[in-house]
Amino acid sequence: MISKIGVIGAGQMGTGISHVCALAGFEVRLTDVSQDVLDKGMGVIGHNMTRQVRRGLISDEDKAAGLGRIHPAVGMEQFGDCDLVVEAATEDEKVKRQILSDLCPHLSPECVLASNTSSISITRLGASTDRPGKFIGMHFMNPVPLMKLVELIRGIATNEDTYQLTRVVVEKLEKTSVPSEDFPAFIVNRILMPMINEAVYTLYEGVGSVEAIDNAMRLGANHPMGPLELADFVGLDTVLAIMQVLYEGLADSKYRPCPLLVKYVEAGWLGRKTGRGFYDYAGETPVPTR
Ligand SMILES: NC(=O)c1ccc[n+]([C@@H]2O[C@H](COP(=O)([O-])OP(=O)(O)OC[C@H]3O[C@@H](n4cnc5c(N)ncnc54)[C@H](O)[C@@H]3O)[C@@H](O)[C@H]2O)c1
């Protein structure tokens, strides 16, 4: 039985995963690189739970109990009694490998380890741990409290018990899991990220403006968000990292990241999280930056 879940990374995804796990009754241990980032992350979780209270989705008591179940602290020592740890740090294989190697010595032998990576090989990440059989991809979608899907990705060594255990956790979170084979970017991002990258090419080549491209896809393809708006929401660094994994992993030029996307990331224009990407978020309503 799973009762304690560890979460590594208190960014967009780590806060969302902690939020839903705590509301589902799990004790959550949350870490990041500094107390400052953790404080900010806890602020985000509190804010998002308040929004759920306002909408009548949870009660004030649920919120208080949920927040009380999340224990933020810097360092890996706190994960010793966890049954499951989900790594949700920056989409960079080197960073994730370092985290996994720092983390493993602190885990109990029974602990299952999952990565929320959007694109990196689960087989390769698993092989860098002391428990490839108990390593799996648990790919939550953003924003986690709203999105119903979790992709479950088995590496070549992942055992059946690990898959079944994470499948049950997903059910307890009232979400739906979809199994995906371990190929670069799995199912959702294999399809979604090339579309976003193509939207950036459409902008780069002057086919349409930011507003025209987003309106075209919202109204013409019935997408709830335009692709550039969505890119800003995901984080342009994450979009670029996923395209690089697709480009290198599948060795096909159709996945070449758009040079304009590279330029935005080099400028530090990462989308909503830095206040500027394809849109500027300083004012009341987002304004296109080109
Ligand atoms: N953004 C999305 O839409 C989305 C969706 C699904 C999955 N993901 C995946 O989730 C993961 C996190 O993405 P995000 O959007 O939350 O990114 P983010 O930039 O919002 O957060 C990443 C967090 O990881 C922390 N971090 C970096 N190195 C660390 C370390 N050594 N120890 C502890 N924490 C560390 C950073 O300080 C940061 O707070 C990535 O693997 C990403 O691909 C993202």
Strand order of the largest sheet: 3-2-1-4-5-6-7-8
Identify the overall geometry: globular
Bound molecules: nicotinamide-adenine-dinucleotide
Could you estimate the helical fraction of the residues in percent?
Answer: 40-55%
Question: What's the Cα radius of gyration?
Answer: 19 Å
Order of helices and strands: EHEHHEEHEHEEHEHHHHHEE
Major sheet summary line: 8 strands, mixed
Low-confidence stretches: none
Put simply, the count of helices is: 11
How would you name the CATH homologous superfamily of the largest domain? NAD(P)-binding Rossmann-like Domain
E-strand count: 10
Structural class: alpha/beta
Record the SSE blueprint:
Blueprint: E1 4-8, H1 12-23, E2 27-31, H2 35-54, H3 60-68, E3 70-72, E4 84-87, H4 93-103, E5 112-115, H5 122-127, E6 135-140, E7 149-154, H6 160-172, E8 176-180, H7 188-204, H8 210-220, H9 227-234, H10 236-250, H11 259-266, E9 279-280, E10 287-288
Parallel strand pairs: 1-2, 1-4, 2-3, 4-5, 5-6, 7-8
Antiparallel strand pairs: 6-7, 9-10
Helix pairs in contact: 1-2, 7-9, 7-10
The structure holds nicotinamide-adenine-dinucleotide.
